[in-house]
Please model this.
Amino acid sequence: MYPLRHICFSMFLILGLLVVPSFAQHSAAQIVSHTPVDSLDPFICGIEVPDSVVWSSEENAYLPNPVPVTYWITNVSNETQSLKLLAMWFEEQDGLRLHPDSPSPVEIHMDLQIPPGDTARFAWLLQADSWGVPRTTGIQTLGVGGGGVLQPCSNSFSIGAADLPLSCALTLQDGLFCDQVLGTPSGDPFPATAVIRNTTATTIDSVYIKCSWFGEPMGSVIAIDPGSESGAVSYLGALEPGEEKAVNWTFIKLRELSANQRRDRFKINYALGDSAVESATLMRHTLTIDPIALKPEIQLQHTTLITDPYQELLWYRDGDSIPRATHYELRPIRPGWYKVRRTNPYGCFAFSDSIYVNFTSVEEPPPAAAMLNVFPNPAMQHCTVQLPETSHPTVLMLTDMLGRMQRKFDVRAGVQDLQLHVTDLPRGTYLLRLLGAERTWTRRLQLR
Model:
């Protein structure tokens, strides 16, 4: 299958194949054209969309609606070229959906032959849903030709706010922080409150509010707590002119997050009358969920505590942080329970298990022959690594501070030093690690 399946957009795939009628009576069109990245690309393309979609209070509708979107692709080569596939993305959360009258299938596979200098045009219609917040939405297309994936095209337009009978003010923590809320199975549920207000001059007899949500890229990680004050659908009853009523939800985590930041999308709909099924969108909101930091591990080697290198580390003794103890190695100076805290780039942290360190005797520092050394340090072009005396083969690795491998050497037993050329590496801090049969040596190397 084409690689389009792996493009990370939480959007619907749609497209159309149609000779484009004139939409000049609606709005002037924006045109975005993309020149090829290199001479091997035989096509250029563009997307035409309205300048904006505006809410008309007199007609109680958006204009234009349905929204016309046109894609064109021109063969700029000297030979006939084929177009195998065409797909389009739009952001449903921005209030767009495929219009029922659009003749376009969801995805089209074809073998369209485009002669030199000719332009093929495709068109489809989108429906703009009414909701009470202005927004800017984007359209993107991608084609596949005989030679592979073609240049993508994109364009955007604004959608004005509709005059809705209700307004909604949402109170929600935008960013749920790891262990405090979502990091553990026992994490506390988190609240959300929507305040619904009658914006008209007349009484609204019956109001239903519905909350729905979905996450990206693998589905939602939150759900309504069974003990929540309000469920997915709430009946507010009548609202007098200017009257406000609150809907209170409590959400819980469905599963752990372990790597990347996530977003869950909220959609709050309303319905007037006796049915909560037929409803219009009142508000959309994106909730950012930070990932859990991976739990670090520590081990005691000789008289040194060691954990994996990481950007933000902090050592603790007997529950208290140790000032300036931020290196991946720590040599304890007094007995106690030691642990290390790792903080990921999103501000989420996790602690290692604690390990008790006790001193039964005073040990002399290991001799130089038992240590891993490097000179010059800092180094510029090359350096010499002095290896400890071992009776077994070892492995020498050079990694950056994120643990990414830069060099790796299999070292025979008895080898005392090794030349390391570092001219091609970016300047900064690196870690040398020698893996032996019974222990591991580590040394920091600075490149300037």
